Amino acid sequence: MRLVRYGEPGYEEPAVLLDDGRAIDASSEFRDFDEGFFACAGLESLQRWVDDGCTGGTVIPKGARIGAPVARPSKIVCVGKNYLEHAKEFGGEQPSEPVLFMKATSAYVSGADDVHVPRNSEKLDYEVELAIVIGRTTSYVREEDARSYIAGYSVMCDYSERAFQKERSGQWVKGKSADTFAPMGPCLLTIDELPDPQALRLWSKVNGDLRQSGWTGDMLFSVDYLVSYISQFMTLLPGDVIATGTPAGVGMGFDPPRFLQAGDLVEFGVEGIGSNMQRVIGCK
User: Fold this and answer.
1) What is the 3-state secondary structure (H, E, C) of 196-242?
2) pLDDT tens-digit map of 194-243
3) pTM higher than 0.90, yes or no?
4) Has residue 274 been placed in a domain?
5) How many domains, in total, are found in the chain?
């Protein structure tokens, strides 16, 4: 299944995208795609509802804003330097363990919303990533069991302000957490629809220029390993998001760097899941 949410920010309704292209409002049966939905076997109930013909559902209006596919998660855990060539362009060696950092959940938005340049920004950058959405409470799981804890996958862009991240001391979170810096969408593709998450192309463009083109098979640490590894340090709750890292081609990696400017158009996607398009706008 492909789960989507639509409507104005903060007022999104749950819906499901059918194989025939119709998006059906599911709010008559389900309040939202949130922690409670996933924790209480909501995916199974939603699948039965779809199999029964989406009784009571209506086609969502054409042109409706598509929001982030799940409600704001309790946390967004990110993996740095998970592709070797990106680790090199970042100025470091291959890590021996996953590099973890967090993004503030206030940065979470739809992949169709504008990206805001934060105040005093100098070096705004982009990073397309495969996103994992957790399906049930995950703590100390084994790698071989990790897949059963995943609800599905989506597409995220891990926007970064490199000056905040690398030149302002402290942890990376400062450069990763500005408003609109965690766009996700357009859908959540359930795990049964994607048997091999390590065989996907992911890409990004800026103003039509292809900047990133990579394969999830090039990850240093696989999807299953990351879920298991992260669960050794924190409990992942249903609906939580893991951003799995980005391939080479970010703005910082060019000589000279090619950072984003107000007015730029950023596109990013993952094969088989979907793509997003965002306009960069000046600071508020």
Assistant:
1) CCCCCEEEEEECCEEEEEEEHHHECCCHHHHHHHHCCCCCECCCCEE
2) 999 999 999 999 999 999 999 999 999 999 999 999 999 999 999 999 99
3) yes
4) yes
5) 2
